[in-house]
Batch of 2 targets.
Target 1
Amino acid sequence: MSKEFKRQDGRKPNEMRRPISAKVGVVPNADGSAMYCSGKTIAIAAVYGPKKMHPQHSQNPEKGTLRCTYNMLSFSVADRIRPGPNRRSTEISKITEWALEPVVMLDKYPNRVVDVYIHMIQADAGTRCAGINAAAMALAHAGIPMKNIVSSIAAGKLDKTVVLDLDKYEDSEFKEGEGSTDIPMTFTPDGKLTHIQVDGHISKEQLKEAMNMAREACKEIYEVQKQALKEIKE
Ligand code: UDP
């Protein structure tokens, strides 16, 4: 890791954005809900269900369906976003399902669906990870049986240096040298990977380094999620 490397906001390569915070029970009418904030990125997740899947032909008699819907609100970034689903939001919704499915015990709910709506109130990169963190807490809050919750963060590369938790500038505008690579990842508390996406180029060794950084950071995120779940007021 290069000693001279300076990030624009002064963070060390292995430093995540601050503050990180979480709150459970932020949408009273939902069956479960949570908010997760990391720096300037704010995600809210609300869970509805389990309920009977409609239309009937979408029902799975073997197990329930986890249906995630990711949405970035129009005012979440400086350039207003056109409302409604798009290719990116459809992809992130699917990725979120895949990141959560390994820990959600869907076999308990044949023919039923658990809906998770994720809204980005503010977006400064890392939104899919913040959404997954909020969704994991909201599912636990809704009482959906889970083997464990999951925690998510991105790591990657700025020019030649492996870094944790890229912000928007680093993810989309950083142009020096080799540019940037962003790798969102999701882990269980015992360090098992449930999701990884590699956007850009990275060597095997640096990918390992990025994964170790993210795995370590997820331990801290897990503690924040756990604390928020303990603080639930009925
Ligand atoms: N972004 C934006 N407009 C868009 C999509 C993304 O301004 O239509 C910004 C937003 O800040 C987002 C960041 O670009 O958080 C990075 O987006 P990316 O697709 O890499 O996903 P993310 O890192 O948020 O999971």
Target 2
Amino acid sequence: MQNLKIDGSRLWQSLMELARIGATEKGGVCRLALTDLDRQGRDLFVRWCREAGCTVSVDAIGNIFARRAGKDNSKPAIVTGSHLDSQPTGGKFDGAYGVMAGLEVVRTLNDLGIVTEAPIEIVAWTNEEGSRFSPAMVGSGVYAGVFALDEALAKKDIEGKSMGDELRRIGYAGKDRTSDRPVGAYFEAHIEQGPILEAEGKTIGVVTAAQGQRWYEITVTGQEAHAGPTPMPRRRDALVGSARMIDTVNRIGHRFAPLACATVGFVQVSPNSRNTIPGRVFFTVDFRHPVDATLSQMHEALHSEFRAIAEAAKVEVEIRDFWYFAPTPFAEDCVGAVREAAGRLGYAHRDIVSGAGHDAVYMAKVAPTGMIFVPCRDGISHNEVEDAAPADLTAGCNVLLHAMLERAKANP
Ligand code: GLV
Ligand code: MN
Ligand code: MN
């Protein structure tokens, strides 16, 4: 049992085959949640799971669960997974790695004829990225009871299409009640998406916690007017006010350095015409920090500084506190199982806090949860050039196998 290893080349081949669905010219992936491409990715995953002997079910928010029976199926399942949706300019590994690593664990157990005490499940969560439908981690959030199912199904994309309609359209509006499945423990393997492991030459990140996040939706209203005849002092330019606010977001990030992160990633200018002074701007803010009290200070700074900027620029600002989750520690026993497996398998490892949000954050609310990070090249993610070494992906999957076996119990 101590020497069990997964098949690294099979894992790599599965990742590369999945990455063909939504492949971009620059070598990345665009597989936005609940698009036709997402459906193709889901279909491939479901086919592979069935071929591996799993029973597949889909819940009402489209989360896919593939179950490998154990000896005692009354025991809560030991679950692993991640997401198949991507950013618009995403990479091959963000999310896909965690799902394919789960599949590789099941395939390895099949090869070796190992039957675990508790059943094992692989899950592909719906809309983790929060790019097409916001916020992020919606499927796991519904599972964990953070979002009401109806609210989640009603979320709309930029074209006004709802998650519920899109789930039905792609054939993944399942019948199972979300949250009905007891989970004994949840593990998620993921690329780090940051530079720490690579810089320190470590193969495995033992994830102890995820930093907190606050997302905002900002609407700035000024007055549309002609770009020629309107004298500068008379203007109420929504874009000028927004530009100052966006700069302030960046300054707040620097003010609470080194651990704070602050990003404006989405901006809509209206009417977006060269010779009309912008009358309305909508933009988003993403704040992150591992310490909740500091995240609150950033929150206060945003509210007070945006109001001051709006007044000086003679525009109105509406600040919508859109999404929040507190810094989340993972379960000591799951973190310990990951650390112990990494050590036993001889991989250089270190403890690490996740900068990104993951479905594991919401799973931590309902089950003992742990995460495994592996390095990614130059620490780059949410980018088509995102890359990871096959040997590191293999190592992370081996750690996943051993951590899961420790929880699911198996006798040789
Ligand atoms: C998920 O990708 C996040 O924004 O952390
Ligand atoms: Mn991810
Ligand atoms: Mn992501």
